[in-house]
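Q: Protein A?
A:
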Amino acid sequence: MTDLLYSEIEEELRASVRALLADHCPPENTLARCETGEPYDRGLWRSLARDLGAASLAVPEEAGGAGASVREAAVVQEELGRAAAPTPYLGSAVLATTALLALEGEDGGEAAKPLASLAAGERTAALAVPLSAMPGTGVFPRAVRADSAGTLTGAVTSVADAAAADVLIVPAEGRDGPGLYAVEATAAALAVVPRTSLDLTRPVADVTFTGTAARRLAGAEQAPAALERALLTGAGLLASEQLGIAEWCLTATVAYLKDRRQFGRQLGSFQALKHRLADLWLEVVGARAAARYAAGTLATGDPDAPVAVAVAASHCGELAVRAAEECVQLHGGIGMTWEHPAHLYLKRAKADQIALGTPDRHRAALAALVDLPAPVG
């Protein structure tokens, strides 16, 4: 049975990450960085990835990592969601790292080369797939093609964290079938063009390859399974981020309604508002159970992981948006201003809702996984 409770080590990790984010990533700093168009704080990322070792949590010790698991990485993702922190953790430490972990041992250990530097927090990576890509489709991307010389041609749109990446992990179709390739961000004939994103704290970019030199990491034997594992883990941990968003929105709204007075009373004393917050709290509790179960099954390689991820992604995706909408509305006029951070959470929640599969698509996938037929007529 998967333990849904947080361990003592996980709580200590949470406290460390939360303290770091409180010092380096208060809302006013994030807002100021978003105004410059460069939301990533390199100093914060170094502290998080290198000093705290958050980038190495899911990497085995023999590969240079901390030897923890996806459960611990999910705790970090929760706190990043709670702070709406602008870091490339999802793209680098989750998606790209998971894909590389699944490739260890193939082609003379080529995957170990970028993996070691990612785990040490020395470099960042991005998995070159659209942020909307969903696990469980069984379709390998064909937007990029590799020739016999190992050069890539094609384009991928809306790649998360690509602009901050030192290396791109690229799914490509070659003469021998699908493969995964590593491309240095400094490579010639590579164009990374930032695009306007609803979520100001997680930039996306279009990536174009025009005969770009690449290093083959894996072929048809492992590439599809590695990509699927990366997307499944990403969707599962994104649910933890959405849980963190919802928790912050609920906590901030309760605190505001306790402090704000109207008609000579605390706003929080009105029964209608109490009921709305109580309903939201119950949904957050349910979302925590779903997100923790998904992380637990991913950590142990449980065959129930696809079902658990589909449940968590469909529930947490909608909850985060609802919690953020309630936060904006119940804060009244101040909740609609740029200076208040509520809009950062609403935008991230909405962007997350369509990332790595929408709730509707995950529910459809869940129905197929548990053999639940669609209604007739």
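Q: Protein B?
A:
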Amino acid sequence: MLPDADELAEVLVELAVPHEDVNELVRMGRRVMDDPELRRFLEHSVDELVRDMGRADDPVVLPELDWPAGALQRCFPAYVFVAALPHTRAYHRSRGIPAEVSRRTLADLGRNMAVHRRRYGRAGVQSPRWLTRHSRGELYQLGRLQFERTRYGPWNSRTLTAAGPDIAPGTPCLSLHVPDFLGPLSPQACDRSLALAAEFFARHFAEEPYRAVLCHSWLLDPQLKEYLPADSNIVRFQKRFRLAPEDRVPEDTEPVQFVFGDPELPVENLPRRTALERAVGDHLRAGGHWYIGHGWFPLQPG
């Protein structure tokens, strides 16, 4: 199920796992393979993950390891994603997806572990449920942005109706995500990603014509325009979308998590080093709230 120690280290580096985590993962990997109970649980988890590979309308929740809290429990999902690699890569090949797109997409495991280390100072997988999308052929990294295959459903229609999309229920759509640790969100980088996405999905998922891009993110909170310059990358990113009215359920921890790395940081101590940090922190300190913004735009055919 797992490569031997030498190959496992190479695979982890290919997946952009933080270098300071590699030796610990290799050491614990031997334990996983030598313990019959852990090995069976790994096999079961991989079976759950790769069942119905490629389906984009049925979320998968990995079973949790019933093990004393510690490094192995925090890192076990990494072994599941590594063991599933042959299945994921075979699916990508069956779709003609370039190896470079596969590599960049699956390297999100390393980014996720870097987020965990930034927050907690130790090895772990921050969001296993998020990473199931990559392993199942649902999500792809194309330039600066990530695009997830999805369908227009009740939740999207509830949040986006006021933004005017004429989209029938069940219509294939792309959900846009902005990954961390990947440089500025410049208009040029976004233009390139969108052009790549239009061409990529028209070629590799021709039976699923995608004509709309959806986004649900704190980056689309219109209040950001009150703090940031009109030519800032975030404001220009917002202008791409047809925005729905503000969702009135506060989500204050979202920008704190993504801007500062830890959603539980005390508001009064948030740094003010950049315009975005000042915007997020000053707004909260003044008694304001942040919200998830919802928007969409048509995808130009590739």
